[in-house]
Amino acid sequence: MWRGEEIIDTLRRIRPPWNVNSVAQQAGVIALKEVGYLKRCQTELGEARDYLVAELSRLGLPPLPTDANFFLVEVGDAAAFRRNLLEHKILVRDCTSFGLPRYIRIAARTLPECRRLVSAIEEMRDGGRDAG
User: Is residue 73 part of a domain?
Assistant: First the structure.
């Protein structure tokens, strides 16, 4: 007989890491109807994206050109780079499953989160560890 905790644990292990639940989807629909909120988010996200592109380029990891809010970055060994970032509690997409084992996919988030990502990459490099 399955207990509730076992079912929840099993579902957590097999669910995709990028899924969005129905409550978050509904919140997104409501947010999109708020024009002021949408404009503010677009501005903040644009600033965070520009910061992240500039800082990654400074670190020798220039993202591929894109019009999207996420981009591909060649890092060498994408799986190792992702594992190293996970030690900093940062999750990026290893693009090996897309046939791109040397790339990760990064989505711009809030400016503080982008700064945290850049700091983690600098720490990985400065610490003498293989960043990827």
Answer: yes
Rounded distance between C-alpha atoms, residue 52 and residue 45, angstroms: 10
Question: Which run of H or of E encompasses 103?
Answer: strand 103-107
pLDDT, residue 57, reads 97
Whether the per-residue pLDDT at 17 is higher than 80: the answer is no
Q: Are 101 and 79 in contact (CB under 8 A)?
A: yes
Rg (CA), the chain: 17
Position 7 scores a pLDDT of 79
Helix axes 111-126, 78-86, angle to 10 degrees: 110
- State both tokens at 80: 């190792």
Count the alpha carbons within 13 Å of 108 in the hemisphere toward its beta carbon. Answer: 24
pLDDT band at 132 (very low <50, low <70, confident <90, very high): low
> What's the pTM value of the predicted model, to 2 decimals?
0.71
Number of domains in the chain: 1
- For residue 39, the enclosing domain spans 21-126
Neighbours of 52 (CB within 10 A): 23
What backbone phi and psi angles, to 5 degrees, belong to 22? -65, -30
